[in-house]
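Researcher: Structure prediction, please.
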Amino acid sequence: MVFAFGHLIGAWLIGKSYEKWGKKKISRYGWFFLLIGGILPDADFLIDWTINTDLHRTFSHSIFFMLLIPIIVYFMFYKLQERKQVSVAIGVGIFTHIFLDIISSSHGLMLLW
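Model: Predicted structure follows.
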């Protein structure tokens, strides 16, 4: 199991690799959304903790979440010049989180929840 810091490091490594090999800089908004995407799927822990449910690793760890959140972010930040980069960054962050959970978990994930 990878904890929040590990997910942040995974997203950061992906961003740094992109900057090095893609020879492009990620904007500060892009970095923010990449790192937020790296820990966003675990926000369901807050719901579990507050209303005493068992929602962890359900919808927020699915392919649908990974596709839905970047679309929502794209339309929420329609005035932002880098809205495409920001929506891709949060999608890559969520993908990184899910990938790290898959390779570090013994019982896997329900990707089509």
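Model: The chain is about 65% helix and 0% strand.
Researcher: Thanks, that helps.
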